[in-house]
Structure formats: C-alpha cells, structure tokens
C-alpha cells in the first residue's frame, strides 16, 4: 500500500506537470488551427512565467549560452524556436539569415519591446513609436551624433575629457573602472544633448540611470524589492529632473528669443514635422531618456571590455600600441591632438573594437512583433507574436567565427562578415543611431590608454554578471597606472 501510494503520487505529479506545461500551448495555439503545425520547435514553459525562469537562471549562472543550448539539445538545431518570453508568445531567432530577414522587413515586423522596457525607456521613445514617427525623429537626431561632420565637431571635446579622466584616475588609486568610464561617456552624451546643464544635473541623472537599467531585462514585477519596481521609481525621478530642464530651457528661449541651436535639446524643441506639429514635453523627455541612456551605457561597457581584453592579451596589446605610436610619429610637429583622419587609420584598433563587440555582445537581443502571419526560414510566425533577435547566437556561430569564445582580433584580417552575421548595433532602419559615436569614443580612449597607461585589475577572475549587460561583478575594480 505504501509503494502504491508513492507511485500514485508520482503519477499524479507527472500528470500535473504535463497539464501545467500544456496550458500555454493550448492557450496560444488554440486559434491557429492547422497553422500550428507550421510553428518552429520549442515550448512555452510554465503558465504565466513561461520560459523566463530558465532564461534568468542561465543568465545568472556562469554559462548564459546554456539557455539556447538547452533548447537546441531538446528540439534539435533550427533557425527559430517558439517560447514564452517576457509575458508573450515569442519566437527566438538564432541564425544570421533569420535575424537579417526580420530586421530588414519593416512591412512584416514592427518594434515589439516588452511592456517593462517601454514603460522604463518611454512610450514616446524609439522603442514605442510607429515607423513614420521613428523615421522623422531618427533623421532629426541621428545626424548630430553620426557622420563625418558631427564626429569632427565632438572629437576634441571627447579627447580632452579622455585625457583629463585618465590623468585623474591615475592619481585616485583604486577605482571602479567601469563606473568611472560610464561617468566619462555620460559626460560626453550630456554635452551633445544638454550642453548647458551643470554638474549637479549630470550627477543626478547618471545615478538614476544605473538603477533604471537593472529593470530593463527583469521580470515585470512592480513590488518593492524587485528590480522593475526600483527602476520605475528611478524613471520617475529622471523624468522629474528632465522636466525641470525642459521647462527652464523653454522659458529661457522664450524670454531671450534665442535662435541658435546649441545642443540636441534645442533641436528637439524647434523640430516640426511636415504638418507643422512640434514635440510636446513628454515626447522630448522620452527621446532624452532613451538617448542619454543608450549613449553612455554601450560606450562605457565596450570601452571597459576592450581595455581589459587588450590588457590581458599581450600580443594584441603590443600590436595595437605599435599602431598608435606610428600614428603619433607620423603626425605634423605643429598638430595638437587627434584628427578624424588619424582615427580612420587605426585599422588594427578597429578590428580590436569589432572583436570586442562580437565577443561581448553588449545587447543580447532586440524585440520585434509580427504585423501579420509571416513565414521565416520555413516556419510560421503568427501575427502579434513577439520576435527575439538573439545576437549572442549569431556572434558565437562557430561556422562564421571559428573558436567563437576566443578573443581574436586577427580573425578580422581580410574578413568581411555577410549580412546578418555581425549585429552589434542591430540592423535595418532601426540600427542604433549612435554606433559611429560609440566607436569613436572607444578609439580615442584606447589611443591614449595604449600610449600612456596600463590597467591593473584587483580581481582579474571576478565573477561576471550578464544582466542587463555583461560586466565584472566588482565593476572592474583596479588601478590605472602611468607608464614611462
């Protein structure tokens, strides 16, 4: 009787598990009819939470790739997998071809960011607006942060701040290298967007962004103690600070009749669409929230990782430093500071940065939503389903990048990846508008670092955290030392 009871309990648990694991399948496929047989392989996990526990478990472990590798081991190798992510039925894209197709097909796909991301970054920012609004705002805001003319204008400001920062850090002793880099890149993006604001405003904003970002990839649980709850509070404080800035700027421009555009905020306040409509405060603030965040987070992290990887690979350090010394040696004697032409000559350093972008993959995914039923690589993506473009799988594809977990800038010698195989800043019409600025900041920093400094990490084997972005748990604690 005892064994029978145990057997019955085990059988009951197995049946209960099967029922629970089938709930999402029934709910999301019940109206698809025979179309459900065209869906990609995969499953939807548990009711409500879907596959999020396995995702978070993998990305809070030492092996984030285990999330996808487990799916592959269960369902075989495919280009797409169905899942239930961030509260929605979803399809995860894991190959270059499927990612390229979705990112470049604006007729079939639109932004599909989770509600948590939209709530934190802003409904009127690029993550929440329509294609037409995006095209207009992108055209308005991308030119001042990309292109030859814009980069030439900001180069000296970036270089001056890099030189000053390195000098200060060398005198400070032990620092959190990532934290200091984020402050540096935040100062740069603040100069571009809010040039007239003081140190107090900058420090207040930078502090809140640190909290905000922890909730972008977290589960949408608005309860005290959870990352999303804290991030919502941080956003409210960010909005309040930026509202004060926008109000003051509007009043000052009105009272002085200023017409000269000094920074991006001026451009946003003057912007008119083809019908003469101007942006209201909510729209201006959401664009600021988005750009100020994206404009320093990626640059700060990538610069840190490029520095660490160069420092820990002596052969890379030697080759990169030799290139920078050659640039200085060939410089006219009366020239002070870098020129954009010299940055363009940093061919090996550019490969180091590209390899860092691939190796680290700052953004693990972007989100789209199917506007209609779409066939991608032989599988159906139903209308309304979310699509996760999984960059990590693309960048770690061993067929495109042999030994993908090896940091090897030389792999870029004579190598140009095919479309969809290298997506550090996304792709299509929603390619990150600040990609050139980010690479310029990293190039300038590495130029001066390689010539005059070295990094001594306190904990070279510090555990890594992968959410919201890959970083050492100690924020790269260490010292910047001058070299003779």
Automatic annotation (TrEMBL):
It is found in: Membrane. Residues 1-25 form the signal peptide. Gene3D superfamilies: Cytochrome P450 (1.10.630.10). InterPro entries: Cyt_P450, Cyt_P450_CS, Cyt_P450_E_grp-I, Cyt_P450_sf. It is a single-pass membrane protein. Keywords: Heme, Iron, Membrane, Metal-binding, Monooxygenase, Oxidoreductase, Signal, Transmembrane, Transmembrane helix. The keyword Signal applies. CDD domains: CYP90-like. The keyword Metal-binding applies. Belongs to the cytochrome P450 family. This is Ent-kaurenoic acid oxidase. It comes from Penstemon davidsonii.
């Amino acid at each position: 009787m005892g064994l029978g009871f145990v057997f019955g309990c085990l059988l009951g648990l197995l049946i209960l598990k099967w029922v629970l694991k089938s709930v999402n399948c029934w709910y999301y496929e019940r109206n698809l009819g025979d179309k459900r047989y065209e869906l990609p392989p995969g499953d939807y996990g548990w009711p409500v939470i879907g596959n999020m526990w396995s995702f978070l478990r993998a990305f809070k472990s030492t092996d984030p790739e285990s999330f996808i590798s487990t799916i592959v081991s269960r369902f075989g190798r495919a280009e797409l997998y169905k899942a239930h992510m961030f509260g929605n039925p979803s399809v995860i894209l894991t190959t270059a071809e499927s990612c390229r197709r979705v990112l470049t097909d604006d007729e079939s796909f639109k932004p599909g960011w989770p509600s948590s991301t939209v709530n934190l970054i802003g409904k009127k920012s690029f993550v929440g607006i329509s294609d037409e609004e995006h095209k207009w705002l992108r055209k308005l805001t991308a030119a001042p942060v990309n292109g030859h003319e814009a980069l030439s204008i900001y180069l000296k400001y970036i270089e001056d701040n890099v030189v000053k920062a390195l000098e200060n850090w060398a005198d400070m002793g032990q620092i959190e290298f990532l934290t200091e880099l984020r402050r540096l890149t935040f100062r740069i993006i603040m100069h571009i967007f809010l040039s007239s604001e003081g140190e107090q405003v900058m420090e207040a904003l930078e502090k809140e962004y640190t909290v905000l970002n922890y909730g972008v990839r977290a589960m949408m649980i608005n309860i005290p103690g959870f990352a999303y709850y804290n991030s919502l509070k941080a956003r409210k404080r960010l909005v309040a600070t930026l509202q004060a800035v926008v109000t003051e700027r509007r009043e000052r421009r009105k009272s002085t009749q200023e017409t000269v555009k000094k920074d991006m905020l001026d451009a946003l306040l003057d912007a008119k669409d083809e019908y003469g409509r101007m942006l209201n405060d909510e729209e201006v603030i959401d664009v600021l929230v988005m750009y100020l965040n994206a404009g320093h987070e990626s640059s700060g992290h990538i610069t840190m990782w490029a520095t660490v990887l160069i420092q820990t690979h002596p052969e890379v350090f030697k080759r990169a430093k030799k290139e920078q010394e050659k640039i200085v040696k060939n410089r006219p004697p009366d020239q002070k500071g870098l020129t954009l032409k010299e940055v363009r000559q940093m061919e090996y350093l550019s490969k180091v940065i590209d390899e860092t972008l691939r190796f680290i993959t700052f953004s693990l995914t972007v989100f789209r939503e199917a506007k209609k039923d779409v066939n991608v690589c032989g599988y159906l993506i139903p209308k309304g389903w979310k699509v996760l473009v999984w960059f990590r799988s693309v960048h770690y594809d061993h067929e495109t990048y042999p030994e993908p977990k090896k940091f090897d800038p030389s792999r870029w010698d004579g190598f140009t990846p095919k479309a969809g195989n290298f997506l550090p800043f996304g792709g299509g019409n929603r390619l990150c508008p600040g990609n050139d600025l980010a690479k310029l900041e990293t190039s300038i920093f590495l130029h001066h670092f390689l010539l005059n400094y070295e990094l001594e990490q306190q904990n070279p084997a510090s555990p890594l955290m992968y959410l919201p972005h890959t970083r050492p748990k100690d924020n790269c604690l260490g010292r910047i030392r001058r070299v003779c």
